[in-house]
From TrEMBL:
Residues 225-301 form the Cation efflux protein cytoplasmic domain. This is Cation transporter. Keywords: Cell inner membrane, Cell membrane, Ion transport, Iron, Iron transport, Membrane, Transmembrane, Transmembrane helix, Transport, Zinc, Zinc transport. PANTHER family: MITOCHONDRIAL METAL TRANSPORTER 1-RELATED. Its main location: membrane. The lineage of its organism: Bacteria, Pseudomonadati, Pseudomonadota, Gammaproteobacteria, Enterobacterales. The keyword Membrane applies. It is a multi-pass membrane protein. It comes from Yersinia hibernica.
Length: 310
């Protein structure tokens, strides 16, 4: 019982660290995206750059995404209750799903607007050079934001924060495309500005599909990576008293994993001895991996030595 309480405390400490890291990095993203979206949209309207307006809308979608992350981050910290025996960690998977759907919608809107411009070239305006400087500034800020957010996400092992960080990287990529489109427009190739907006839309749709697909798989009890499963198997098999394992199953719960496994132990052991082996195996997995719970079942193992022993 003491070992179990220590493990739960470790999970609480880890969740506490993840919460504060996520809140801090997300608020940084909110502030940066607030200034960028306003600057890009206003400059895009006055300079006549559709690509910059599209990039500004993309940055604006980041603001919505950031608030989704803040809400999910707060909800996922809720303690175990009568209706949620494993906690509320799947709020993070739900947030990733919402982020993906948001990106799909924003990207589709960008494509629609860009295609209409390309079909009506007379409506394409000559872009002012100030749009280029704003696009390049946005590129630098977004790339720096991505690197900061990804470093935090990796440190606290949060897939939700990783998704939000790559959302910022998609912004940086789109700003680069927009800058190239504006340069083309300034050189006399006016159609390159809406082409840049179209490419930004495709980038956003691709990211949205990726996040949506990943989140749906996790919400449908997708297993942990095979590499992690192999390491969990090795840890269980190296536990003293464990002769073999079978029926190992894993499923994702937010950024944690839930494990079910059958352990083979000597059939001549007492119930208490078998229980102690199961507790030791469970605690070793909880200590070494990002695992929320391990459900073990003890199976008696009859070896030739056991059968022939008096």
């Amino acid at each position: 019982m003491i070992e179990k309480n220590i493990t739960l405390d470790e999970h609480d400490n880890e969740s506490h660290e993840r919460f504060h890291a996520a809140r801090k990095s997300t608020w940084v993203s909110v502030i940066v995206n607030c200034f960028l979206s306003l600057g890009q949209i206003i400059t895009g309207l006055f300079s006549g750059s559709q690509g910059l307006i599209a990039d500004g809308i993309h940055s604006l979608s980041d603001l919505v995404a950031d608030f989704v992350v803040l809400i999910a981050n707060n909800k996922s910290r809720k303690a175990v209750d009568a209706d949620h025996h494993y906690g509320h960690y799947r709020y993070e998977n739900g947030a990733s799903l919402i982020l993906g759907i948001l990106l799909l919608l924003v990207g589709t809107g960008m494509l629609w607007s860009a295609i209409n411009k390309i079909h009506n070239p007379e409506s394409i305006a000559q872009v002012h050079i100030i749009a280029l400087w704003v696009a390049l500034s946005a590129l630098i800020f977004k790339e720096l934001l991505f690197r900061y957010m990804l470093a935090v996400a990796i440190r606290v092992k949060s897939s939700m924060l990783v998704a939000n960080a790559w959302h910022a990287r998609s912004d940086a990529a789109s700003s680069l495309v927009v800058a190239l489109g504006i340069i083309g427009n300034l050189l006399g190739f006016k159609f390159l500005d809406p082409v840049a907006a179209l490419i930004v839309g495709l980038i956003v749709i691709k990211m949205g599909y990726s996040f949506t697909s990943e989140a749906l798989h996790d919400l449908m009890d997708r297993a942990a990576d095979s590499e992690i499963e192999d390491k969990i198997k090795s840890t269980l098999l190296s536990t003293e008293g464990v002769i073999g394992i079978h029926d190992l199953k894993t499923r994702k719960m937010g950024d944690f994993i839930i494990v079910d496994v059958h352990l083979d132990v000597n059939s001549h052991l007492s119930v208490k001895e078998g229980h102690d082996i199961a507790v030791l195996a469970r605690n070793r997995v909880l200590k070494n991996f990002n695992v929320l719970n391990v459900m073990t079942h003890i199976d008696p193992y009859e070896s030739d030595d056991n059968i022939s022993s008096p």
